[in-house]
Design a protein that fits this description.
By secondary structure, this protein is an all-alpha fold.
């Protein structure tokens, strides 16, 4: 009996990455980072002035700052994994936290 040859297995290729979308999200990270630096500096200044009076900023300010940083870190990880959709989602969340912080700090 003659062996039947099998067709070659299809080659698994990595899904194509939308470089333009990836670059767009990376630009968004850069733009947001500039705003984040300003917000963090304002929050630190507020902490210092309140500490001098024995007070501290409201918990939601701290929470917004932590949430913002967490989401930015997740966005960076998603970009490093070429996951545009996840990066966009995390940047959207980070931007909402940043906007809340900017509003509370009158920036």
């Amino acid at each position: 009996p003659q062996a039947v040859s099998q067709p070659p297995a299809p080659v698994q290729t990595a899904p194509s990455v939308d470089r333009a979308a990836l670059d767009g999200q990376r630009r968004r990270v850069i733009q947001m980072s500039q705003r984040i630096v300003t917000a963090k500096a304002a929050l630190q200044s507020l902490r210092e002035s309140m500490a001098a009076q024995g007070l501290r900023p409201r918990a939601e300010l701290q929470g917004s700052a932590q949430r913002m940083q967490f989401e930015m870190d997740q966005a960076e990880a998603s970009l490093n994994a070429n996951d545009v959709a996840q990066a966009k989602q995390h940047l959207d969340y980070a931007e909402r936290a940043l906007e809340a912080l900017e509003k509370a700090l009158n920036l």
